[in-house]
Design a protein that fits this description.
Elements: E1 8-12, E2 18-19, E3 37-41, E4 75-78, H1 81-86, E5 91-95, E6 98-99, E7 104-105, H2 112-122, E8 130-134, H3 138-150, E9 154-159, E10 167-168, E11 176-181, H4 187-197, E12 203-205, H5 212-218, H6 220-229, E13 235-239, H7 244-259, E14 268-274, H8 279-285, H9 296-305, H10 324-331, E15 336-338, H11 340-354, H12 360-375, E16 384-388, H13 393-397, E17 403-404, E18 409-410, H14 417-425
Parallel strand pairs: 5-16, 8-9, 8-12, 9-11, 11-18, 13-14, 13-16, 14-15
Antiparallel strand pairs: 1-2, 1-3, 4-5, 6-7, 10-17
Helix pairs in contact: 2-3, 2-5, 5-7, 6-7, 11-12
Length: 428
């Protein structure tokens, strides 16, 4: 018997209003204020599916209509070398990337694949509208691969300065098109470009953090850890650009508490940012629900200064109901900021200790864990989950030819929407 789709409703986090998903609902149509909508699954028990492959073993907690080929779930293992270096006895690493020795086979080397397989699995194959994804890099690579492999029409919008992130082992299928905001622009400019495209009904916005499928795909990292350890961790570490991955694990933590078999506690959240791009860190340290002021020019300069370019979202889902501020308030924890120098040190040290290369962003998370240990924020015997959101790229690229995608169009996001749409439509 084939997969018939997951049964679920959507819930407005702000007021608890539950309603049916009309197929691509990104917000409660009756909402009076901005709020994320959360999937409420018919199966309230965490039940990995032995009959489904890859990420879809967690399909009972993914809002998907179908499964797609090529997915891989995150892999969790108990750290020995890094744990010993930090003096921790119960450190678990959840790894997303390419590390076949550990069973990790994400070919784009990033946990963004979990989002892409979930979001694209939510999309009705009968829907002919073109999916639009704005990205600073890793998300674009993941969606491009998944859509290329599964023949799903896709438009990617990315800053031209981040195009080096779009590498693949083979050329993309013609169903995937790429537009870029010009050199010197940032992720927010790429979002602005995609927003204008999506004013035309031929296109549909992927939705970012507002898409419950994206969050629940990312939340599979916690499911991997709980399946391995048999319990909810005490503390969680991850580097953040938007904070969506941290929101996602908080939501799955609440579902696991509802199940009742994995613990009744909320794991403390310790997200981190790459200094000087610290808009959420600065806001949290002021204990402000509203984001601190950051002008476009300040954001572009800060984005240019950080090593971990993917951590440069200046309009993250922080303030709205169900966003990162609410997650942190509910679960407890703290935020850290990490310099490029610290990032580089722990990136190298992680590879020496654990035996695999990692991206700049997860190196920020490793550095923040070292800070937390030094400051006594975590106890040496607590169960700690370290989310390594991307790695194994050096391993994946060694000994194989790499193909770089190029943008079909470079467009100024300040152009009128109709001009941008007319140019983009010619690509399809």
């Amino acid at each position: 018997m084939g997969f018939e789709g997951t049964r679920y409703n959507l819930m407005n986090v702000a007021d608890g209003h539950e309603f049916e998903d009309k197929g691509w609902t990104l917000a409660d149509p009756q909402a009076e204020s901005p709020s994320l909508v959360r999937a409420v699954y018919e199966n309230r028990r965490f039940t990995p599916r032995e009959d489904l492959d890859g990420l879809y073993r967690y399909a009972d907690w993914l809002p998907v209509k179908r499964t797609l080929k090529g997915s891989c779930a995150p892999v969790t293992y108990k750290s020995e070398a890094l744990a010993a270096e930090l003096g921790l006895s119960n450190l678990y690493i959840t790894f997303s990337g390419w590390w076949p020795e550990k069973g990790a086979r994400m070919r784009t080397c990033s946990f963004k694949e979990t989002e892409a397989y979930s979001v694209c699995g939510r999309r009705d194959p009968a829907n002919e509208r073109i999916l639009v994804v704005a990205s600073a890099g890793n998300t674009a690579r993941a969606f491009a691969k998944v859509c290329s492999d599964n023949r799903i029409p896709l438009l990617i919008s990315i800053p031209e300065d981040n195009m080096d992130a779009l590498w693949f082992s083979e050329p993309l299928n013609d169903c995937v098109k790429i537009i870029a905001s010009p050199k010197g622009s940032d992720y927010f400019d790429a979002i602005a470009l995609s927003d204008k495209v999506c004013t035309d009904p031929a296109f549909m916005a992927e939705g970012g953090a507002k898409n419950a499928a994206r969050r629940d795909g990312m939340g599979s990292t916690l499911l991997s850890a709980v399946e391995k350890t048999g319990r909810i961790p005490d503390a969680y570490f991850q580097a953040i650009g938007s904070g969506t991955g941290t929101i996602a694990v908080w939501e799955n933590n609440l579902r696991l508490i509802g199940d009742g078999r994995w613990g009744s506690h909320k794991m403390r959240l310790y997200p981190s940012q790459n200094d000087p791009f610290t808009i959420m860190y600065d806001s949290w340290k002021q204990h402000s629900r509203q984001l601190v002021e950051m002008t476009p020019d300040q954001a572009r300069k800060a984005a240019a200064d950080i090593d971990a370019k993917v951590l440069s979202n200046r309009k993250p889902p922080y303030s709205l109901a169900g966003g990162l501020f609410d997650a942190m308030e509910d679960a407890g924890g703290d935020m850290f900021k990490v310099t490029n120098e610290q990032l580089r040190f722990w990136k190298k040290r992680f590879q020496e200790l654990e035996g695999i290369d990692i991206h700049d962003a997860p190196a920020v998370a490793v550095a923040s864990l070292a800070q937390a240990v030094r400051e006594g924020a975590v106890k040496k015997d607590e169960m700690i989950m370290l989310n390594i959101t991307g790695g194994g790229e050096e391993l994946a690229r060694s000994g194989q030819k790499v193909v770089y995608a190029r943008p079909q169009l470079i467009l100024d996001p300040d152009l009128p929407a109709e001009e941008i749409i007319a140019a983009v439509k010619q690509l399809f």
